[in-house]
Amino acid sequence: MLKQWVLAAIVLASASVARAESSGGYSYPVGLDENGDNFLALRSRPTTQEGVRLRKLGPGTLFSVIRRQGAWYNVRLLDGESGWVYGRYVGCCARGPQGPAPAVAQTMQVVVQPGEAETARLRGQVEQLTALVRANQEKQERRERAEAAAAARQAAAQAEAERPLAADEDALAGLSARFEQAAANRASYLTPTKPDDQDLGRTARTASEQFPKVPFYIPGTRESGRFWVEPRVGDTGRLSYDMVFVDPRASVDQKRAVIDLTPEQLDRMKLAIAKISLWSEIAHRNEVRRHYRKRVDCFPEASCPRDGDKIDGKSSTEVVFFVNEDGSTGGRIQRNKGRYDEGYNVSVKSARLLASYLSYVQSRGERDYAAGTRTAADLDAMFR
């Protein structure tokens, strides 16, 4: 149907031009949007990709059609200026300011009068189609502007995300100074005067702080916080990990509690946290909707009470899986201190993030520990 209307528009425009050339009448702009631009552009070339816009032809502007090139008409205004206009917006025929059109034009009008009614009907339909096409074009332009704005916001967010963190600003300043020195050296020599291949990485502690934060909450309260795991080498030279429970809203001491984990206990913690995610899927798959609690792991075993009991004078760390009566699931990291215990609950999604966080910190901690414990013999074996 759209092709038929476009074909009708071309036929109507061609008939109008032919009638204008034969009758001596003038053409004029049609199909303009009164609520939009409301003008027909007079251009220097028969295209919108080249040339420039010479004038804006408003409603009622008269001009003569000189010739046609594709969908474009070469026209001449009453003041003598000429240019190109898009044929879809050209109508015919109007009397000029000189007075009535020649008698031959009147005679021709009588002959083709039945066709004029059809032409007027087609002109109205073409104008409706023109308005529809213009509305679709404006809708497309608005969508493109919205997409461009969204892309600009995304680029700005990515640039902000890639901005150096405060912890790296000193390293960035050092790199800038070395770059300036290297540039000065290369101004005179083809190679740097001093070594410039420093390997300045981040410590495992700094890396652990820059990982996405993992939240926890205290059941039965409005309190919440986040986990922080820090690799640490004690005075005996052994690697361990401090799981720190941080309350960022505290004004004095933000550390709520610290659990010291050996590398082996950290492995058990990772496995237990991963099992919480697995058990959660099982609970949802079987539509469990009742209060349920089960210990996933506890260490050291000699200090762990039976599930639900207490042991005076013993401390241990356990990981617990639970299901609420509404079917929601989660996990709990609990520190048993004799007959007293304190726990920190996490959602299943937080548990998954915590498992990744523990693996990340463990990897960085082992790399730092290996780098710091190498002996001269280890380096000799490395550089054979």
UniProtKB/TrEMBL annotation:
This is SH3b domain-containing protein. The keyword Transmembrane does not apply. Pfam families: SH3_3. Residues 40-90 form the SH3b domain. It comes from Methylobacterium frigidaeris. The keyword Coiled coil applies. Residues 129-156 form a coiled coil. InterPro entries: SH3-like_bac-type. Keywords: Coiled coil, Signal. Residues 1-20 form the signal peptide.
